[in-house]
């Protein structure tokens, strides 16, 4: 058995790079010392022959065996001074496997020329403890040297952690080991009284966040980190208001939805954003029903590079479709969403397709080649003011594109067709909303004709926080320029939801749709845009009306003071999900709807905008064109 020693050591020399020589030497010394000491402890530090000779013989083959196991468990590939629970488990696995092999050999050889079982057990305990101790020592030295290096380079700000749970503990551990961040945790605040007067990583849990001002005076912290990803929006807003009142900067960890979907890590602290204050408490979705709908299916998303389309792709990929087809007209946006999905590990199922939904031949070829079973149609022109000036483009893309896609979906035998609509389609006052409403009317009529072969449904939701062209990024740009922040009217209100929430609604609705429905989420209470502007100014560290002015510029063409929830002709019905409503109405005749759309699209590029609006008004009585630069003449 001793003849195998040179072979094993030569194997290690070739397998391991030179930079791991120190680690190889250290592990060799530790493994040899653990066997030596195990014999010494067993015989009370007086080892007689033949055990003394046998000890050295066993060291020559047991040490290479342990090194081979440490290599197999990945302990030569990591950095020496990084040691956490996963490394501890791997060291335990390597040494435990070595002990098991020695015991197995002992029984097969009937104990001849092998260590006694008590020495095997002692060797396991010693080698495991000594390797872990060695790695922990290196980590301590690294952290102390980092602290010494950072001292004086950057003054650490005293920081309170709001939330003494797992996420808060992770944040504190990270800050204590990385003083270069410039933050020094000094205290925990938590709503759970049972945690008060306890310690986490040496930091005390002292009080409730409700007593933030008193705690600040007592402990002198200059900043707070909100580590409560599952807290309600209302609770987060209360803490932010308390911090602002005493002039303390607040940061926050990602939301629970971002953490559970793998979008970000728990230790990624970021500034508080308006989404944290306006986003509502997460609506629980029937994830198993959504998964059953998507797993193993071929799914196509149009407009995959947009705000909603990209989030749709990410959430759909999480539910393991067999193929995820990303259809997008913009090459740049398609590249961006494809790269993000590949980085998240979905490379094997993602297929990017540059295409325009108006190109019927290209779409037909895609359907014939890839045979999608479910379509989420998010491609659209959505900017109200731009479409108001060129209504023909809104009709061509939002209505004409949807009609072509729906017809080809039936032709290709698609199972479900989910249309992304908007609350602006409800009693619309702008062309963008009217074009979406006209598409809804066509899909409801088409669903009646398809007799369940292809199920058509639409999903309406309000303004999406942070989407391209929405009010939030516009306000951010205006604040960055020093103002003013422009608001159309002091009383204008809108419903808001986050992008993940909107997409969750789309998937939830698709999973329970039977065909012909229009779904909408319980969108909660509307928000005054002027209040939104004030909160964003305050979050940026300025004072509304003092540092940054708010200017009212008047409603623009196509805008309402408030958004409505349903048409008068629609009937509200419950669904399986308490937060999802289902609107149904009598579908119009498909021939009439199709003939009108064909006539409207015919020669639309040369049509007068006022004529397009008047035709829409004639077919959609609920559409009331706004004033402004364009008048709905030619009635």
Give the topology, please.
Elements: H1 5-15, H2 21-42, H3 51-72, H4 85-108, H5 117-150, E1 157-162, H6 166-177, E2 183-189, E3 199-200, E4 203-207, H7 212-219, E5 223-226, H8 233-245, E6 249-252, H9 256-260, E7 270-271, H10 274-278, H11 287-294, E8 298-302, H12 307-318, E9 323-328, H13 331-343, E10 350-354, H14 360-370, E11 374-377, H15 384-389, H16 391-412, E12 416-420, H17 431-450, E13 455-460, E14 463-465, H18 471-480, E15 485-487, E16 493-494, E17 496-498, H19 499-512, E18 518-521, E19 527-528, H20 529-539, E20 550-552, E21 571-574, E22 580-584, H21 590-601, H22 609-619
Parallel strand pairs: 1-2, 1-5, 2-4, 5-6, 8-9, 8-11, 9-10, 11-12, 12-13, 13-18, 14-17, 15-20
Antiparallel strand pairs: 3-4, 6-7, 16-19, 18-22, 21-22
Helix pairs in contact: 1-3, 2-3, 2-5, 3-4, 4-5, 11-19, 12-19, 14-16, 16-17, 16-21, 17-21, 18-20
